[in-house]
Amino acid sequence: MIDRINRLASEIEAIKAGSLEEVEHLRLKYLSKKGLVSALFDDFKGVAPEMKREVGQLLNDLKNKTHQKIDELKSGFEAVGGASAVTLDLTRPANNAQPGSRHPLSIVRNQIIDIFARIGFTVADGPEIEDDWHNFSALNFTADHPARDMQDTFFIATNPDILLRTHTSSVQIRTMEATKPPIRMIFPGRVFRNEAISARAHCIFHQVEGLYIDKHVSFADLKQTLMYFAKEMFGENTKIRLRPSYFPFTEPSGEMDVSCLICGGEGCNICKYTGWVEILGCGMVDPNALDNCGIDSQIYTGFAFGMGIERITMLKYQIKDLRLFYENDVRFLRQFAGAF
Ligand code: PHE
Predict the structure, then answer these.
(1) Which ligand 1 atom minimizes the distance to the CA of 166?
(2) Which of 61, 209, 222, 249 could form a disulfide with 306 if both were Cys (CB 3.0 to 4.6 A apart)?
(3) pLDDT in the model for residue 220
(4) What is the pLDDT of residue 76?
């Protein structure tokens, strides 16, 4: 009897299986009611009483080891999803994963958000479909103001009050209506204008606008903030220049140029041989715009600025045609793989 137990034990020790079905077959062969291990238990009844202790011990060990072995074989197959061990070739090259990459406009938008986050600006979003009040009237564009012409957009024929926003200044209005100063926020988003599509203009583009309102905010704060931004975005040696301009919702208003990052100010075809490239509009928030939103212009002042993400991206990566951003040509997009 002891011999039979030992022989069966070494047989079981050596078993191998090529598939889950085979494991099940082996389990039945050894452990089912009529299996070989169970048969030994039946014979145990005939063992002499003085041998029962030793043989019983061996039998129990055999049974436990068999269970263990079957479990081991089984879990080996479960780990590889039930596939046959023979067909699993660990030396084969893995499936070729093709991770996507961020769109260049998203990369630059994220950089702009990061730069302003470091000096305490948070991010807010608003609707792309706007009403006249938030896009124009509250910003001091009176009904027949000629500045509306410069931001012609897409209106709903049946309701001229509803339009696609022409700038994210509409989100500045929504924020001022809903929040008490101090306000220090930027507003990235998609905007729309009725423009003929060309290498430099599109009917859809992206902006980041910024707003800072508190007591005693001055033009010096505006200039310092924009200088910080320009150096972070384009490099430590970047210079800025502010030129007077006009927006209905800022007074005074300006446009900001940065020294040309291609020629460093010497003059080249990117800066049209002026040494400067325009990147944004800005100014001190007009008191009317503050009062329109329930912010007391006697107590608070603020500055605002707005830039086109396409323009910054084109400068940074020297992209000559703005239409490339919207064509989804992977040969263009793949060049930005790995950037965040
Ligand atoms: N909203 C202006 C535009 O889209 C940009 C701007 C924002 C100018 C804030 C001044 C202040 O053209």
Answers:
(1) 4
(2) 209
(3) 98
(4) 77
Could you read off the pLDDT of 193-216 as tens digits, one per residue? 999 999 888 999 999 999 999 999
How far apart are alpha carbons 136 and 152 in whole angstroms?
11
For ligand 1, the distance from its centroid to the CA atom of residue 168, given in whole angstroms, is 8
- Regions in the chain scoring below 70 on pLDDT: 79-86, 340
Pocket, ligand 1, Cβ cutoff 6 A? 167, 169, 209, 247, 250, 281-283, 304-306
For 221-241, b where at least 16 C-beta lie within 10 A, e where not — what string? Answer: bbbebbbebbbbbbeeebbbe
Helix axes 52-79, 36-44, angle to 10 degrees: 160
Residue 219: its pLDDT value, please?
98
Q: Which amino acid is at 193?
A: R
Q: Which of 191, 130, 180, 148 is nearest to 290 (CA)?
A: 180
Containing H/E element for 23? Answer: helix 20-31
Domains of the chain: 2-87 (no CATH), 104-336 (3.30.930.10)
